[in-house]
Amino acid sequence: xxxxxxxxxxxxxVSGYRPVEERINDYSxxxxxxxxxxxRAQAARCMDCGVPFCHWACPLGxxxxxxxxxxxxxxxxGAWAILEHTNPFPEFTGRVCPALCEASCVLGANxxxxxxxxxxxxxxxxxxxxxxxxPRPPKTRNxxxxxxxxxxxxxxxxxxxxxxxxxTTTVYEADQKPGGYLRYGIPDFKLDKNFIDRRIxxxxxxxxxxxTGSRIGGGRYGFGAEGAxxxxxxxxxxxxxxxxxxxxxxxxTIGAREPRSLQVPGRExxxxxxxxxxxxxxxxxxxxxxxxxxxxxxxxxxxVVIGGGDTGSDCVGTxxxxxxxxxxxxxxxxxxxxHRSESAPWPLWPTVLKTSSSHLEGSQRLWSINTKSFSPxxxxxxxxxxxxxxxxxxxxxWNMTEIPGTDFExxxxxxxxxxxxxxxxxxxxxxDLGLExxxxxxxxxxxxxxxxxxxxxxxxxxxxxxxxxxxxxADGKAAAEAILAKLG
Length: 488
Prior knowledge:
This protein is an alpha/beta fold.
């Protein structure tokens, strides 16, 4: 244990953000970093408690107390070695994870929790700085071949562990570059794509084979424009059955990319865009050779973001950087409390008000607002018609009712639909392989990761539905372990 009284003497200190007036003029990462000395002090706040609920809450099973102690003792190599044992990509989770661990930190029961996420990021970046993160290809191959379809967090995680276990692992990706949601969904100001490229270069040196611009079967499962192939490179289209026959096992990690739409009058008008299309086009513009598709710009426009989650927040930050004249984010659910409610006691994850760096840059936020229609003018979007709603518990379920006389409109030139995703894209690859679907419309897996096709398994959001990056990484890791047990 680092400092037995550290949590009594040292207060929580977060890294903080670059000044608003500076960061809204670029797409560089907004979060700053502490000095090594301050970071070691923050690690000293870890109590080394008898029951580490942080470990319990982490989908990857990170053993936080051990590497907090190593950071405190200035043993960065030791901290990284312990962290890497459970988490293949701390540079991703250290930037975009909501830190389920911190919500369950024992210190957080009556004080501010340890800065676990930021300590994790410091550990991996220090390891790269010291040059101790090196390619480690397997000494031998086991003669088995696995195809991973989809290079998002679940696919990369599975490929990482399969390759190190000796499998010849080929990752197929429909887009120009690997990364999936990490590259095309998360803005650069939260996750600089150079860190993805750095990891892909390491995996390539370790023997993972990447085939980008390769679509398996027909259909849409990349990050293109809504209902089209926007942004996807004109690469090879591979027959799904032929690919299945060429490998010992095929693992699908194609995500859950079917967006939830909004079927209200006026939805067909120009200026109403799915949030992920908006974000992915901006990311492509910044990080890829020109594909002929320009970003959807918010410059000088009144922007309405429909959806109050992280994707909606990312839209707010992007629209601010593009020069929107105004931004209003609306959410149909009630405003969350600022502190834990009795229904979510520690160490459970609390539903509390979350204010992101993007919100701090300027926007109006409204809760309990239902979208009723979109109003055009001169053939373009001009306003969003909304009303206030009330939520009440009835028969064990929350029910929404409109409040009479509360209708109003919000001026809008661009409406971004950030309402999440319903399930995996079913047309194309999933249909070509004849896979059964579950009641939610995702790929049905049987007991473990098996689909209705014995040679095809699934992991990540494609079987679980849209969730967190850290859960996708954990599911890819678990799938690799199951494949090792089956074929190893």
